[in-house]
Fold these 2 entries.
Entry 1:
Amino acid sequence: MNKTKIGWIGLGNMGTPMSEQLIKAGYPLQVYNRSKEKESALKAMGAGIASSPAELIQSSDIVILMVSDDQAVREIFNAESGLLSVKTAGKIIINMSTVSPGVSKEMAALSAEFGHHYIDAPVSGSVKQAQEGQLVIMAGGSESTFLKAKPVLEVLGKMAMLVGGTGAGNSTKLAINSLLALYAQGLAETVIFANQQGIKTENLLTLIGQAALGNVFTKIKGDAILNDQYNAAFALKHIVKDLNLAKNEGLSSPLATTALETFQQAEPSYGEEDIIAVIKQLNS
Ligand code: NAP
């Protein structure tokens, strides 16, 4: 049994399989989720349950956050029973959520005031990669904190790279997710165009899969289109969040601007479905 005690906050589509990897790797794990019913799967695997972020941080060496957005992060740090509501120091706080570089800088400064060490470490990859410990992790913060966190990050991902100071992981993630948005919209538009030309989706996807454009994303999302299966692995509402975050950081290129418009139009109907449900919006 590994001795580093880990506290996990956020048991959504990603947080659940990621935290399960830590249990499988032998880390003592305690979890907290705002909606308590999502904690039962982890409890069944042997995780402890904390009643609040405050309780969680007191009994952990490392606290990991995997939650939706900037607002969720601020609440988890600053709420009445949040991470910073208790007198304890010297913890490592790893924020793996896709959030703004600004919120990371804010939380890193607050963490330092309390004697904690913060790194941002968002991930590329989705539920399948999370289940297999094959995420790609990009981190921002001090090298010494990164090196202490690295053994844990390497359970969750196939690689973890320090890309700069606080917020640099978030900036990198926003850049990668703008490409993700373009791929998703591009794949959807390509399928629709081919269908209009009388080409079967299955044949088109088989050919793309064998060509230079074939990749894991095309395979997984192509299968989703073929099976008319749009349950969220990566909810469409999250790409709207990410494109807005990238826009706030200055991304105003022609493709990114168009993608933001498209996904914003899709969000009211398909926000809770997977990103590739954008095909339904483009088809309507
Ligand atoms: P999700 O399934 O929507 O889960 C979101 C989690 O955040 C839930 O545990 C939710 O708690 C919690 N949360 C939201 N607002 C909160 C608040 N105000 N206070 C406390 N907890 C709050 O999201 P996900 O797909 O796991 O994604 C998590 C993060 O990873 C996001 O930033 C996303 O952009 C990023 N990401 C996702 C993927 C993917 O493929 N899904 C891939 C890479 C990165 P409740 O259960 O109470 O709602």
Entry 2:
Amino acid sequence: MRLVFLGPPGAGKGTQAHVLSEEWGVPHLSTGDLLREERRQGTKLGKQAQDFMDRGELVPDQLIIEMMAERCRKPDCQKGYLLDGFPRTLSQAEALDKMLKQLGHELDAVIDLAVPEPEIIRRLSGRRVCPSCLRIYHQETMPPRVEGTCDDCGAKLVQREDDQPEVIRTRLRAYESQTAPLIAYYQERNLLHTVDGSIGVEHTRRQIQAQFGLSASQ
Ligand code: AP5
């Protein structure tokens, strides 16, 4: 199972990929999480990515492509993976095609989560994340059982620095100009499946499972 989750910031790519990765037993590869971890560890890549991320701009293609080429070659990716946040430009999509070819792998599908902009802004403004196990919450629609504390690992929840209004606007512009063209790219390759991402986490998950004929029992 090799899937790409496409969609604007806040569409629910991370939320869906996290749940489905556990159900299907394949890793969830989030470029955003990988980059945040590089930053936390103070690596060269983390330092190179930092300013772009803080401004809400995309990190240069070459850095992302190298990071993902290395990650996708790890043994846990043999059975497949769910890509969240990659590819995000045409160059990255072409690099992914090349990478898959070299490894003798194929993409099964690209899931485009469609969500209107006002809902995106509401979601990102209320998002809280666990810095330890990376679980995603929302203050109103998906609150933790104990306010400010992760249900799974007990860590203190935080707001992502790029979830500030000005940065959210820049991220949305970056999506429109650099990532949205991938919809046509994958449509031409008959890989695109558009899923309504505005209908609640559980409903969206069921739609994805219905499209792929997969459920927890299979
Ligand atoms: P990244 O971390 O990938 O951010 P993003 O794409 O902007 O996506 P988000 O993580 O904000 O949203 P999401 O779709 O995962 O939504 P989520 O599930 O969290 O990237 C961050 C930065 O890293 C980029 O700006 C860039 O600088 C850099 N970067 C990353 N990848 C790159 C690449 N390939 N190339 C270059 N640069 C790159 O959900 C959001 C909220 O909504 C949550 O609170 C959740 O609880 C709630 N929610 C989710 N689904 C639903 C639902 N169905 N109903 C109601 N609420 C929901």
